[in-house]
Amino acid sequence: MERVTLGDRVHRQLRELLMAGKLMPGEKLSLRSVAASLGVSMMPVREAVAQLVAEDALTVLPNRAISVPVMTKRRFRELRAIRVMLEGYAAEQAAQQRGEADLAQIREADAQFRRAVSGAAPDPVSALRWNMNLHFAVYRAAQSPSLLTIIEGLWLKVGPVINLDLRASAERLSAGASERLHARLLAAIEAGDGAGARAALVEDINGSAAFIEATGNLPD
Question: CA dist 169 to 92, 172, 173, 175, 208, Å?
Fold first, then answer.
């Protein structure tokens, strides 16, 4: 059995915060505050942060403070293009490789996402969590651990930005664009339609990216 250290656990928890969009672009991190919130000493936090800096998920400022990198338009577009290729391929493979357990996880995440965005007052926090859970249930269903690791690395970099789409606008949640695309994605995977799954996933990525660029929050 692989031994999981306290530093590994802190690293995983910080990764999940970044991927889920719970840390925002430009947000500064206090190592002391992180340690207190996770109930650990400073040492494992320093180790985890050093790993995330090496992974290009956090950055060290000139004053030695740690922050979430600010995403430029150019880098965002570059990462979007890579996501379209790799995540689209993962969705296609999921339609062909998924088992019943995979389908159950995707259906559950889809149902929970719908619950979070329905009604007069959508829940952006829950929607963020279940949107990520749905995407990664699909990517795991592709049955490719190497591909999954690469996609996790992409979300580590873009998670703080791509989740602005769901977090910034309750009206956009209520509009149902993500709901409709998730429904198409699920239906295609259930039917074993790889091309349809890829198309729905790619449209979801591109729609979110277009909204984020339209907000004007990404520097040149």
Answer: 30, 5, 7, 10, 12
In tens, the pLDDT along 81-118 reads: 999 999 999 999 999 999 999 999 999 999 999 998 88
| 6-67 placed in CATH 1.10.10.60 | no
CA atoms of 66 and 42, how far apart (whole Å)? 14
Cβ–Cβ < 8 Å for 157, 79: yes
- Domain layout of the chain by residue ranges: 6-67, 73-214
The DSSP symbol for 20 reads T
- Gyration radius of the chain's alpha carbons: 18
Asked if residue 160 lies in contact with residue 18, where contact means CB atoms within 8 angstroms, the answer is: yes
Give the span between the Cα atoms of 109 and 131, in whole angstroms. Answer: 7
- Give CA separation, 126 vs 117, 123, 133, 148, 173, in Å: 8, 6, 10, 23, 12
116 neighbors 123 (Cβ within 8 angstroms): yes
Question: Which tens digit of pLDDT belongs to each residue from 192-206?
Answer: 999 999 999 999 999
Specify the CATH architecture of the domain 73-214.
Answer: Up-down Bundle (1.20)
Could you tell me if 189 and 143 are in contact, meaning their C-beta atoms sit under 8 angstroms apart? no
